[in-house]
Amino acid sequence: MGIVSLLLGSSKKKKRKNPARPRAPRSAVARALRHTAAGAGSRSAAELGQRIATGLSTIETAVLAIDTVGERLREALDLVRAANTTDDPGHRALFAGRYDDVRAEIDAAVGSASHNRINLINGRLIGGKHPALDIELNEDGRAGVAVHVVNLTTGAGGLELSPPRSGFAENEELSMIAGEIAAAQTLVSRVSERFLDHAALIADRLARLQSAAGPRLIEPELPTGADAALPEEMELGPIELGITEIEQRLRLLAEREEAIPAD
């Protein structure tokens, strides 16, 4: 065979192809994409989480104020009981004066319990038209929590705590106000329980979203109680301060009476 024939024959040989690489199954691709997204954190989870966290802070602000209201109601009951132990009109008037201060402190605590311009316990419609705070727990809005506004002011439609019109001089007034305080404590306890249940449900959902958000930290738009700081004297003053102040006044009154010469 000549050289030309050999060259022609070699050109007719088929070229060898590289073996095809096996394609990854779709499930493996999906897993890889999920891992990549988890590494960066889910932006949508973080954004939804921020809205939920803001709603949770609004509830927490209300719960803190409710705790203050509960403390003041306990003091109010102590004042009524103390007034019942004396027949002295002056002493009773001192207890009545402090009780009126307690009513004002309850209204102040309730009035300042707003977060993100929303107050859940002052009995007013949110934005003048909404009776509840709706917190969506997923993007499509199919799951959520409606936190209804309640009235914990001392007036009508709320705790309905009557002012001490007779200055605690009448036993009937003491008995009536003691009953009002007991009813108010029941209402406050029920509201506190409901709000805490809402908070627990929302906090659980928030924890799941934080896991999905990865390194993206979920925080509320405003810190809890950011626009609703309680007055300083209410934050620092324990219940016993009111009773102590009255006791001091009673001692001074007794000393003055002893100093007055008898006729």
From TrEMBL:
Residues 11-24 have a biased composition (Basic residues). It comes from the Bacteria. Residues 1-27 are annotated as: Disordered. This is Flagellin N-terminal domain-containing protein.
